[in-house]
Every structure is written in structure tokens, then in C-alpha cells.
Design goal:
With 196 residues, the chain is an alpha+beta fold. Helix content is 29%, strand content 31%. The chain has helices spanning 31-44, 114-125, 147-160, 167-173, 187-195; strands at 49-52, 57-66, 69-77, 85-89, 92-101, 106-108, 129-136, 141-146, 164-166, 175-176. A hairpin with a 2-residue loop joins strand 4 and strand 5.
């Protein structure tokens, strides 16, 4: 497809090639969008109440180019964020972090921060269900990793310097999350297996 001036439209993808390998569940969707849609389905069907946590930001400067519009030009994080999502399912507190990687062979530990690990350990200590959802976008595969399974890999990097978890290890130690039409990232199916 070309514009009237003869230039190609770079946003149009052909039906063949890379787009052909993309699965139904991930056509233009990010992991966050899929989880938000899933959580909306869970709330609408009264299965669970789980929300994305807002990131606490302190707004410092705002520019008003017109009366009806405001543009934030400067802001700071008030405090380090904890995890992405939390809520309640079957009378249990749920707390999890969601990460997506384009890496084909490993999940980089740099995607997680120390204060998030401390938060997750606290959730576990107090009886909550805590986990990570990791998507390998290249393979269109999404995995549920219990926090207790993830912690040794996090701690190991300080002993032997390994800064990532191999893809094969995620496949073996994690649980592949099924894709459903309405619950795109149906992580409650895994929680039901593990806890109920």
C-alpha cells in the first residue's frame, strides 16, 4: 500500500511472513492488555476481583497548550512500585508481577527489582498467593511461575553471577497458561490446580 505521494505505508503488514506465525491470542495485544482483559472477564463473571495497581507518581510541572488540554512535562515516582496486580480469589489474596520478553533463549532477571522480590516474599509470609506471569512473545507462550520457585533463581545470581533464567528452565519449572477466548491469560486455572 502506498500513499498518494508514492511512499510506502510502513505500518501495514503483509499476510505472509512474520505475521503468519503470530498466534490468535496475540494479534497486536501485549501481555498487559491480555491480563487486563482477563481480569475484566473475571470481574464481570464474579469469579475474582483483581486489578492493576496504579504507579504512584508525583506531578511537578504541567504545561497547558490550550485551555482544554494539559500536558505533564515533569513528574517523579513517589516510591518504588511493588508488583503489577493484586486482588482476591476464593478468599485468598492474590499478588503478581507480569513481564514480557522478546528474548528467545532466556528471561533476564534485570526485568525484576529487589524491592519487588522483598514485597513478594512478604506476601508469601502472610499466606498470600504470589507469582510471576512471563510471556515469551517470540513463541507466543505465557507461563505461571510461583514466587517460591522464582526466588532461588533470583538469589542464585548473587552467588554465581547468572543474570537470567533459561527458556528451557521456565518451561520445566513453570506452568503454561492456557489461552481462552474470554480469559486470554487464564491464570486462575493454574491457581485452582495448585491451591484448590
Amino acid at each position: 500500500m502506498r500513499y498518494p505521494n508514492g511512499q510506502k505505508n510502513k505500518n501495514v503488514q503483509r499476510a505472509s511472513g512474520a505475521n503468519r506465525t503470530m498466534g490468535f491470542s496475540n494479534r497486536g495485544m501485549t501481555l498487559e492488555e491480555d491480563i487486563n482483559a482477563t481480569n475484566g472477564f473475571y470481574r464481570n463473571t464474579d469469579k475474582a476481583i483483581i486489578h492493576k495497581k496504579p504507579t504512584p507518581v508525583q506531578i511537578v510541572n504541567v504545561h497547558y497548550p490550550k485551555r482544554s488540554a494539559a500536558v505533564i512535562t515533569e513528574g517523579y515516582f513517589k516510591q518504588p512500585s511493588t508488583t503489577d496486580y493484586n486482588g482476591v480469589y476464593r478468599s485468598r489474596y492474590i499478588d503478581f508481577e507480569a513481564k514480557e520478553t522478546k528474548n528467545k533463549t532466556r528471561f533476564p532477571l534485570a526485568n525484576i527489582h529487589g524491592h519487588q522480590i522483598e514485597h513478594m516474599k512478604g506476601v508469601i509470609r502472610h499466606g498470600g498467593i504470589c507469582f510471576l506471569i512471563i510471556r515469551f512473545s517470540v513463541y507466543n507462550e505465557t507461563y505461571y511461575i510461583p514466587a517460591e520457585v522464582f526466588f532461588p533463581y533470583w538469589d542464585q545470581q548473587f552467588n554465581d553471577g547468572k543474570k537470567s533464567i533459561p527458556y528451557e528452565t521456565i518451561q520445566k519449572t513453570g506452568y503454561k497458561i492456557p489461552f481462552n477466548y474470554q480469559a486470554r491469560v487464564n491464570y486462575l486455572a493454574i491457581i485452582d490446580q495448585l491451591y484448590f
